[in-house]
Amino acid sequence: MLDKNLPEESKRLAENIAEQFKLERDKEFTFLLVGRSGVGKSSTANSLMGKKIAPVGKFEPTTMTVERYKSEIGGVKFTIIDTPGLCDDLEKKGNDYEYLERIRLNTSRIDLMWFVTELDENRVLSDEKRGIKLISEAFNPKIWEQAIIVFTCADKVSPEEYPEFLEKRTELIRKEISTYSGIAIANNIPSIAVSNIKEFTPDGERWLGELYTQVYTRMAREGAGAFFMSTVERIQPPKIEREIVYVPSPPPTAPAIYLNERQAGIVRNRTVDIIIQSTEAGAVTGQMIGEAIGSIGGPVVSELLGKGGEVVGGTVGALVGVWKGIFG
Ligand SMILES: Nc1nc2c(ncn2[C@@H]2O[C@H](COP(=O)(O)OP(=O)(O)OP(=O)(O)O)[C@@H](O)[C@H]2O)c(=O)[nH]1
Ligand SMILES: [Mg+2]
């Protein structure tokens, strides 16, 4: 039964949002990983998705290949395209253009490109420069508007050196990219330091929440809702209200994604953006959405989700839990 005290408008909006998220779940998203061999591309993608999708290990590529890893989490399908060899100086390089053409032809949309490199380097390596050039030529340089720079191996840098490494490395990589994209685009590319062997970066912060926040805000709108749905069960808002987890949901098997206040704010705004752009509820504001979500109680959700005989279960339960935390 829907709560009789709920204002009609809020109720309708809540229904709309629930519908919207069911639709988002049916969409897909694609990440493109770029970076030298062995820098931790696979490890980082696996860390973010909380699942072993791409194999980890030191494979020295002998030729450039394109690997496509298709996976699914919580009913959301996604693809990780890996580009071993693209940023490596290889004996037998193969044909760069043929290779890039193959990526382009077989990919309908790239929602986010990850440029992955180690934090504990002090220059942009020649093979990385080549990779940046190839990517920029193969795609429109605007691909850098949907890109993030990921610095792996933050664990190899001391807490004292960490801020300087992060700043200097970001500056150097952006400078290299700016040759193709222009300075404005390059300087807007966020950079995130990660460690695939530790939960914290040397500054004492949890890096996974930051990576999550940047990926979610930076990726194409078309794939962002699906990404949200594939990860929502793992999100821990700053102050989670445990009592609102009412839809039986299996304990997450993947590591939780803790968000601090700032990150939660960014995630909230992005999610509201997605809803506002897709909802048919007319002129809605973030506050209205917040209120609608906040007013959803367990029985209400059950009723909404029970509609049409479809049981959504854990994911939407988690979604509402997360939202109450975020909007709380
Ligand atoms: N210390 C440390 N090691 C890492 C980190 N990330 C990855 N590694 C290790 O580095 C090695 C290579 O990691 P991968 O994730 O396979 O790297 P990749 O870029 O996907 O490598 P290729 O697919 O071969 O190009 C593995 O042994 C990882 O365990 C990190 O943040 N810190
Ligand atoms: Mg790999």
Q: How would you sum up this structure in a few lines?
A:
This protein is of the alpha/beta class. It has 2 domains: 8-24 and 227-327, no CATH class; 28-223, P-loop containing nucleotide triphosphate hydrolases (Rossmann fold).
Features of this protein?
alpha/beta; Rossmann fold; 12 helices; binds guanosine-5'-triphosphate; binds magnesium ion
Task: Describe the protein in words.
This protein has 328 residues and is α/β, with parallel strands linked by helices. The chain has two domains: 8-24 and 227-327, no CATH class; 28-223, Rossmann fold, CATH 3.40.50.300. It is 45% helix and 12% strand. It contains twelve helices and eight strands. Strands 2-3-1-4-5-6 form a six-stranded mixed sheet, sandwiched between helices. Helix 1 packs across helix 10, helix 4 (126-138) crosses helix 5 (162-181) and helix 7 (207-218) runs parallel beside helix 9 (261-278). The chain is globular and about 65 Å long. The model is unreliable at 241-248 and 297-313 (pLDDT under 50). The site of magnesium ion has 4 residues, from helix 2.
Itemize the secondary structure elements and their pairings.
Layout: H1 8-25, E1 28-34, H2 41-49, E2 67-73, E3 76-82, H3 96-105, E4 112-118, H4 126-138, E5 147-152, H5 162-181, H6 183-187, E6 191-193, H7 207-218, H8 221-231, E7 235-236, E8 257-258, H9 261-278, H10 286-295, H11 298-306, H12 314-327
Parallel strand pairs: 1-3, 1-4, 4-5, 5-6, 7-8
Antiparallel strand pairs: 2-3
This protein binds guanosine-5'-triphosphate and magnesium ion.
